[in-house]
Hints:
Order of helices and strands: EHEHEHHHEEHHHEEEEEEE
Radius of gyration: 17 Å
Number of helices: 8
Shape: globular
Number of strands: 12
Oligomer: single chain
Amino acid sequence: xxxxxxxxxxxxxxxxxxxxxxxxxxxxxxRVWFVGDLVNRGPESAGVLRxxxxxxxxxxxxxxxxxxxxxAAAEGIVDLRPKDTVHDVLRATxxxxxxxxxxxxxxxxxxxxxxxxxxxxLPQWTLDEAAALAxxxxxxxxxxxxxxxxxxxxxxxIRPWSPALQGVARCVAAAxxxxxxxxxxxxxxxxxxxxxxxxxxxxxxxWFRIPGRRSRDGIVITGHWAALGLHFEQDHWGIDSGxxxxxxxxxxxxxxxxxxxxxxxxx
Length: 267
């Protein structure tokens, strides 16, 4: 029973179908993990959600920043920008069903030596601590007061992570890290940098190269950083290969790190 992890799909439904065909995916015997950002920027966000939702128990999804944006847009908490392409979800007759399913997905998934999260982890967090934080966020987001979480995430005061934070503020600070981090300082200060490794700003490092990072006892699988591209280190696999930017959509088989690609969105 092989398990495949797939990078950021971002509304590229046709490419996802092609990739599942490429790996000869069998929902009865195989499993597939999605590293988040299922929607937005590509042309068929609703199609992607329907396809993955239809895979049922054979698919495991963690939420990315674009997925959280869609949840907020569906509640009228944020307005769509010219570059956003989730109109097909918001206008769909099954919008509430799709959004409700998405809202109940976790922020992280841990299984054996693998830990999947959309963007990355703070250097201070162990995998156990990160998993516990992800559960707190999921409880907040799937509970009856989820609108408060989304409002704080998109319109609240941006607070750096601190273990002293409590309640919604704690969940929001952790969610921002898990869905947005690319580079940080050894103390955990985040930057807004999104370029390549050669241009990381002075004083910052890729989060996975911070000396003494406490999550090195597993393999952390992430997406989010398209400019990084496919990137494999002993304890980190980055698999956002830039499908929506015209490069490729990639699946990696966890058992042997075999790679499978299809051509990305033509731009």
